[in-house]
Fold these 2 entries.
Entry 1:
Amino acid sequence: MILLILVCRYYRGALGAMLVYDITKHPTFENVPRWLHELKDHANRDIVLLMVGNKLDLVSDGSVPRGVTEEQTAATQHEVGRCSV
């Protein structure tokens, strides 16, 4: 119950939210729908959402394989873009 109260307070009054995931680790990408659900439940309906795939530099230089495909990202960005919080 305390966690729920903290989540509500955390989102209250927010004008924007950044949903940041690690493109080299798919499990972090799997959190995006949960974050959207939390925002829908607790944030202002007019909140601006921005989804960011982090660590592209590691993939670009070939040191780490990509864990989230560009197609997966595009599909989820589409969902975020049409999400009415």
Entry 2:
Amino acid sequence: MKRDQIEITSVKVLQKTVAMCHNKIGDTKETTEIDKKFTHPDFTTALALLKPALAEVHYLPKNKIDNVSITGFSLSGKENCNVIINGTLKTPDKKVVAINSPAILIAENKYSFVETLGACIESITDEAYEYFFKGKTGQEEMKFEEREEEEK
């Protein structure tokens, strides 16, 4: 399926795998796919672009952005103009809690990141497309001991 024939409406990271909801352009039936391949570093990097946005909607100072992890996003509304960012926050006592943004209207300048939000979402959906439809995948890290045994 070509990229311009598909509309990706949500992407979620589930441990080291990815789930994606999508539909064909012009079709209202949504399909959910879960892939057990390892995520590619490009995909992880694209998701991380949303960290400052999720931190800002929760009024976190810039020095706390590293405590935020992005687990996905979903699009809704007419022409998918609303974004909800999903993630986690590591608390001072080292607990991890789920946090989500409110629905962010891409066309509204309520937050400082809105101008780049569309490009971030496009980057993530392009990576998800490559992952699910073009076979792009990460590689499981080999432990050092395993590499030594293979070299013998």
